[in-house]
Structures are given as structure tokens and as C-alpha cells.
């Protein structure tokens, strides 16, 4: 339970940091690459290991790190744009909609339990997502941005679901064999490598302008980002069913993000949004009870 609570906190902090990027005019891509190098260094220090050793590269789980690395660098940039263009509350909602796909896969394909309390809680969670998302009609931009409005949220949703399913699969099949920190560290390391393949030529050509504030922003982002993924793997290894852990995680982050958006960034919450917040609390309670 501790891992789940800390994962909720770390994931919520990431959204707040992304929102601050727009305030301080941080270059998303540069900060995100530094963030992944920060994760690689932090994980290597905590694991007391050398990055990309022969043992790591030859391990059964390393190929999944390659896939996750690509999804991380691509998905994080999409999420950063969405957080800044459409706000914390909306982007968090679409990111957490991934629970629909994740739960469906874990129950239908992997045979996790489908207790009536769990199903009821998940349905209420979906209702909460809709209600908190209700205000999106008021912030859909005009012109060209309107055309891509549905593209960014959809990509955020799909990428989040794929990442969650991969994390569940490697734990469920015990491919990682307890090497959760090494697995997490090198997935971020691959993301750093993929990002550098674009960033280094960009610096040489003058497309990117290096700024120290982007480095600092990336370091700040990297710490909660590392633990957000690592804690999810620990949560799953603690015996949580994915169809319980991920809905609680996603709805909790949705709840906290909406409240922080309202309190800190003065994002308007309508009566529908407040109803969604109440529904999310009910959903968390029911899904938690289903696992007892």
C-alpha cells in the first residue's frame, strides 16, 4: 500500500512540474532528455551498479526496456504539450483513461478477478473521468489547434495504457525476477539514448539552443519520474492485481491533479467537475474494498 500511495504522489507531482514548464518557458524536449539521464544516474546510484553492463543487456527483460524507452521519450513529449495546451486536469483525465484498456486486458486476457465491487468501482471511475472532463468543451481552442485537440489526448491515453500493460506483463510473467530497480533504471536509460539521437544533431545544427534552466528543470522532473515507475513495479510485486492497483492509481492522480489545478493554478472546476471528484472518491473506496 505504501508503494501505491507514493506512486500516486510522484505521478501527481509530474503533472504539476509540466505545468510549471510553461510558466518558466522551459524547453520540453531538452528538459525531458535531461530528466531521463537523471533517472539513469539516480537508478544506477541507488542500485549500486554500472549502467548497461553485459549482464543487463543479456537479460530477458532488456528488450522490454528498449520498447519502454521509446514509449517514454515519445509519450512524455506528447504529455508535456497536452499539459501546457489543455491544462493539468484535462490531460490527467485522458492519461488516466488508460485504466479502461489496462483493466480490460488484465481481466479478459490474464484472468484477474472480476468482483462486482471492482466492476462497479471501475464504472464509477469512468463516470468520474467523464465528469471531470466535462469542462473540456469550454477550452477546446479554435483554428488549427482544434483539429489536433482529440489527437493529443488520444495519444496520451493509448501510450499510457501500453506502458501500463508492459509493466504488468513483465511483473506477471516474472521476467524481471526481482530486478525492479535495474529494470526501471535501464528503461529510462534507453529513453535517454533515443532522445539524444535527436537532441545532439539538433544542437550541432542550431535547431536547439542549450540553456541551463532546461537542465535544472530536467533534474527536478527526473526524481519523481523515476520513482513513479519504480513504485508501480513494486506495487505490482506486492500482490496488487493490476485491475485494482492501476484504477486506484489513475483515479487518485486524477483527483489530486484536479484539486491542485483548482487551488494552485486557478483552473476553473464546474459543478460537473466537483461531482466527478466525489465519484472518484467513491470509486477508490469500492475498488479498494474489492481487494480485501
Question: Can you describe this structure?
Answer:
With about 290 residues, the chain is mainly α. The chain has one domain (about 1-290). It contains 14 helices and no strands. Helix 4 (about 60-85) packs across helix 11 (about 180-205) and helix 5 crosses helix 10 (about 150-170). The chain is globular, with a radius of gyration of 19 Å. The two termini are about 10 Å apart. The model has no long low-confidence stretch (mean pLDDT about 85).
In short:
By secondary structure, the chain is mainly α.
Strand coverage percent: under 5%
Average pLDDT, all residues:
87
Instruction: Give the N-to-C terminal Cα separation.
Output: 12 Å
Low-pLDDT segments, ≥5 res: none
Characteristic key phrases:
292 residues, mainly alpha, 14 helices, 0% strand
Give the topology, please.
Elements: H1 2-23, H2 28-47, H3 54-57, H4 62-86, H5 88-96, H6 98-108, H7 116-132, H8 136-139, H9 144-148, H10 151-172, H11 180-205, H12 212-237, H13 242-263, H14 271-290
Helix pairs in contact: 1-12, 1-13, 2-4, 2-11, 2-12, 4-5, 4-10, 4-11, 5-10, 5-13, 6-10, 6-13, 7-13, 7-14, 10-12, 11-12, 13-14
